[in-house]
């Protein structure tokens, strides 16, 4: 059930990290829309399949457009939206299963294109909607529905992966502080290029990592999450890579590179080659 | 089978010649066939070129041929009148295709043949060098061919002038050398004493002609209907559409781009179609397999897109550069679930143009995916066709929603009245285009009422489609010949030969396979017996026609080559007995 649609029957579990991410996205879209003086309808949410993708049906306030497609294909769908309509603000919402497993093949090409879309990735280290199977970011040895005797792969490091393939804006945060998360999402939307905000968004049912992330001194748990120091220079690729060698989950902006986008380069071709009309194309085959 | 069947009757003047250049890929086979086709087209003849290649960049046995005729060319013909064999291997592999009285010109620099056969040798490279232009070797050969078919040298010269007048200093010299190369070839052929007959004068066709391949015609047609977004992934024999689009779909609000897989291609055109673009991709069988889920998404969320399947031999990697029509089941039902795609299957190069335009219009009109089924034998062959009149091409655009927010796009629709308009991002009426079953505003639902009403809506929308070119002749005959797609040409030629021999055959043909025009389905249903020539093992189209209550059976072929009219005549005669 959602505020705008009483008949909609999907719910997130109580305490799900995606609630916080939704609030952050709502803040960010509202701000972005005002600051850029754009109609709300120029925002398009491209949703993956899984718990997190259902966010597109749960947005409150002014409604963005949405497309809730097929598993793993948010990036190429967003490519179609953005390369045809550069005036639109395309925002992907997807989870670690959708984006990093079945959809991982599209991250590299999107980075090489520097496609101007923003990805908000909700990482809970598990497939929640299908009831608790292991995901690319589940820990080795983790017992899940599909790894009853322990997971037998090392977990992938999404942030290192993004760095390696050349994503031009990389931020990492968690779902517990929506207002700060909103700031990074908005920055990512403003960033002209391929941006990913990777969010730790715990699954309270299958992989509750709140305490692990934030720590619980009373029980002797030191939190995995740590704030990136103010003196980190995100424009410096080397220090961004070094930052990612430190254990735990960094919180903040890791890397940012300003470069031409696919759309910029396409526009350059248009200007260089000019308009080719149907009439001229047809006439060139006259015998 | 008498192979001397390219020509209609035993006239002293011939109406039709096939000239084949065979050798290795990279030897200029296509250039030679193309040059001859262009010279003949400028002289007012109808021409069709056809090439076969192995799937490799250079080398390997290849051939390229041109059929020249006084009337529109329907197929690549039965036999070969003149064979130019550039190596012994190609001679050994092609001479059996020669018609009675056909002549081979062999490459005397490579090999020799024993005295006394229907052939003569030529040293094209050596003769070309003597003109001072080593690159004119193919003109020596063309001269020899022209002499054999008594083709006007004046027209060959005109063609050479046209081709090599490029506004450069050396133009005149190059033209001279090429013309002398032609004369040297003529001399060799004259000395040989062979001739294969005289080509009847051309009946100059009215109006402008364009010379295009099926894939270029299709690309031109799609853009004529306003296509402004194309992405694709290289795959034979669809690559030339991607290359054409990259070269020509350039300008404001236009986009053409190579993506990293067929999965990206289908997903991207869904994204583009959703945001208001007229979007298309083209692929072959393997790509269609990869696109199946995305096609289901376009159907389910009701997004206009066009997907072209330029068929080749399958399954899996199959026969990448050969002919087959075996994707029909797949294209009709590419996706899981209750889905049946609209399909246009052009049968000639000219029909490729109009199918390209119509597919874009269909997609816009019914807000969903449309598939064009072309085929290797159609996509890469060159033909001269009447230049389409752009003013006559419809440029339909979907009904765009322009009201206030709070719009319900996915309303119940029974097929009467206007289809609900489609909101476009950037405008009003925000909704979710959803690949999960959904309610009126696109939110996911499992309620039976929505799955029932929207399943019906998606099928009801097909009622908006169906009009396309069709042909019905002699529908009361004992046997109706009813090919689909690229088998139309050879089937039509076979039909015409059978009619001339007073055989009781009829003809039903439709470009729209689904939905089919009612009048076509009625004609097929009332026909006594329907014969479907098609290039696949299972007899896919006749199987589908039988489901519709048509008494249909197939003549099948699955060796990777198109039908020859003569072989169809023979197999239909057997059915008539």
Provide a count of the helices of chain A: 11
What class, by secondary structure content of chain A?
alpha/beta
Number of domains of chain A: 1
Query: Which blocks of ≥5 consecutive residues of chain B have pLDDT under 50?
Result: 1-5
Task: Kindly state the number of beta strands of chain B.
Answer: 23
Largest sheet of chain B: 7 strands, mixed
Rounded to an integer in angstroms, the radius of gyration calculated over CA atoms of chain A is 20 Å
Describe the model:
- The complex is a heterodimer of chains A (287) and B (577).
- Chain A is α/β, with parallel strands linked by helices and 287 residues long.
- Chain A has a single domain, classed as Thiamin diphosphate (ThDP)-binding fold, Pyr/PP domains (Rossmann fold), CATH 3.40.50.
- Chain A has an eight-stranded mixed beta sheet, sandwiched between helices. Chain A has a two-stranded antiparallel sheet with strand order 5-6.
- The longest helix of chain A has 19 residues.
- In chain B, strands 11-10-12-13-15-14-21 form a seven-stranded mixed beta sheet, with helices on both faces.
- Chain B has 577 residues and is an alpha/beta fold.
- Chains A and B meet through strand 1, strand 2, helix 3, helix 10 and helix 11 of A and helix 1, strand 9, helix 7, helix 9 and helix 11 of B.
- Strand 2 of chain A pairs parallel with strand 17 of chain B, so a sheet runs across the interface.
């Amino acid at each position: 059930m959602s505020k705008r649609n009483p008949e909609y029957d999907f719910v997130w579990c109580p305490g799900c990290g995606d609630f916080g991410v939704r609030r952050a996205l709502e803040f960010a879209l509202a701000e972005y829309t005002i600051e850029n003086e754009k109609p709300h309808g120029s925002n398009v949410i491209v949703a993956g399949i899984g718990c997190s993708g259902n966010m597109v049906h749960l947005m409150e306030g002014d409604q963005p457009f949405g497309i809730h497609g097929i598993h793993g294909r948010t990036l190429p769908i967003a490519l179609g939206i953005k390369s045809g309509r550069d005036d639109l603000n395309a925002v992907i919402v997807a989870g670690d299963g959708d984006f990093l497993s079945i959809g991982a093949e599209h991250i590299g090409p999107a980075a090489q294109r520097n496609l101007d879309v923003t990805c908000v990735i909700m990482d809970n280290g598990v497939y929640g909607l299908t009831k608790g199977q292991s995901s690319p970011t589940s820990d080795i040895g983790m017992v899940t529905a599909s790894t009853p005797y322990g997971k037998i792969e090392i977990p992938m490091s999404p942030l290192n992966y993004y760095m390696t393939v050349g994503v031009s804006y990389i931020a990492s945060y968690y779902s517990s502080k929506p207002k700060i998360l909103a700031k990074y999402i908005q920055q990512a939307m403003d960033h002209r290029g391929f941006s990913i905000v990777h969010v730790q968004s715990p699954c309270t049912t299958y992989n509750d990592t709140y305490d692990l992330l934030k720590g619980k001194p009373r029980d002797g748990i030191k939190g995995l999450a740590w704030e990136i120091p103010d003196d980190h220079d995100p424009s410096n690729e080397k220090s961004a890579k070094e930052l990612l060698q430190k254990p735990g989950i960094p919180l903040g902006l890791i890397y940012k590179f300003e470069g031409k986008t696919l759309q910029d380069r396409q526009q350059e071709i248009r200007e260089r080659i000019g308009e080719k009309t149907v009439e001229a194309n047809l006439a060139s085959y006259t015998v | 089978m008498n192979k001397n069947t390219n020509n209609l009757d035993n006239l002293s003047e011939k109406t039709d010649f096939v000239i084949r250049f065979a050798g290795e890929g990279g030897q200029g086979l296509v250039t030679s066939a193309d040059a001859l086709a262009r010279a003949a087209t400028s002289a007012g003849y109808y021409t069709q070129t056809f090439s076969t290649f192995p799937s490799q960049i250079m080398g390997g046995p290849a051939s390229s041929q041109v059929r020249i005729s006084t009337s529109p060319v329907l197929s690549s013909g039965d036999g070969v009148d003149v064979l130019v064999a550039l190596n012994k291997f190609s001679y050994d592999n092609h001479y059996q295709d020669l018609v009675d009285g056909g002549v081979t010109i062999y490459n005397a620099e490579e090999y020799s043949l024993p005295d006394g056969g229907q052939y003569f040798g030529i040293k094209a490279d050596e003769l070309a060098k003597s003109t001072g232009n080593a690159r004119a070797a193919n003109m020596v050969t063309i001269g020899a061919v022209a002499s054999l078919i008594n083709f006007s040298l004046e027209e060959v010269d005109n063609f050479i002038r046209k081709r090599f007048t490029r506004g450069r200093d050396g133009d005149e010299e190059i033209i001279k050398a090429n013309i002398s190369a032609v004369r040297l070839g003529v001399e060799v052929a004259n000395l040989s004493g062979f001739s294969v007959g005289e080509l009847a004068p051309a009946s100059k066709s009215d109006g402008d002609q364009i010379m295009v391949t099926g894939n270029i015609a299709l690309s031109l047609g799609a853009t004529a209907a306003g296509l402004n977004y194309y992405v694709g992934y290289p795959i034979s024999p669809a690559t030339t559409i991607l290359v054409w689009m990259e070269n020509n779909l350039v300008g404001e609000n236009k986009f053409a781009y190579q993506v990293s897989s067929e999965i990206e291609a289908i997903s991207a055109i869904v994204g583009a179609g959703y945001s208001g673009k007229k979007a298309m991709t083209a692929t072959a069988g393997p790509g269609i397999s990869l696109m199946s889920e995305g096609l289901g998404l376009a159907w389910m969320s009701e997004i206009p897109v066009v997907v072209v399947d330029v068929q080749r031999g399958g399954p899996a990697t199959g026969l990448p550069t050969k002919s087959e029509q075996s994707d029909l089941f797949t294209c009709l039902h590419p996706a899981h679930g209750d889905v049946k795609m609209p399909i246009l299957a052009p049968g000639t190069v000219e029909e490729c143009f109009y199918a390209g335009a119509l597919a874009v219009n269909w997609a816009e009109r019914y807000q969903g995916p449309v598939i064009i089924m072309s085929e290797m034998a159609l996509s890469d062959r060159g033909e001269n066709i009447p230049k389409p009149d752009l003013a006559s091409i419809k440029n339909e655009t979907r009904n765009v929603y322009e009201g206030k927010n709070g719009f319900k796009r996915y309303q119940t629709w029974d097929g009467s009245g206007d289809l609900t308009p489609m909101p476009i991002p950037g405008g009003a009426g925000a909704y979710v285009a959803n690949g999960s079953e959904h309610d009126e505003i696109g939110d996911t639902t499992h309620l039976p009422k929505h799955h029932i009403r929207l399943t019906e809506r998606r099928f009801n929308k097909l009622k908006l489609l169906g009009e396309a070119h069709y042909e019905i002749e002699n529908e009361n005959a004992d046997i109706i010949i009813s090919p689909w797609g690229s088998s139309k040409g050879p089937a039509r030629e076979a039909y015409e030969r059978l009619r001339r021999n007073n055989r009781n055959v009829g003809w039903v043909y439709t470009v729209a396979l689904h939905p089919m025009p009612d009048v076509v389905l009625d004609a097929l249903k009332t026909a006594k017996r329907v014969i479907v020539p098609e290039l696949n093992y299972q007899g896919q189209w006749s199987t589908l026609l039988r489901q519709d209550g048509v008494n249909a059976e197939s003549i099948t072929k699955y060796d990777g080559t198109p039908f020859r009219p003569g072989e169809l005549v023979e197999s239909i005669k057997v059915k008539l007995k």
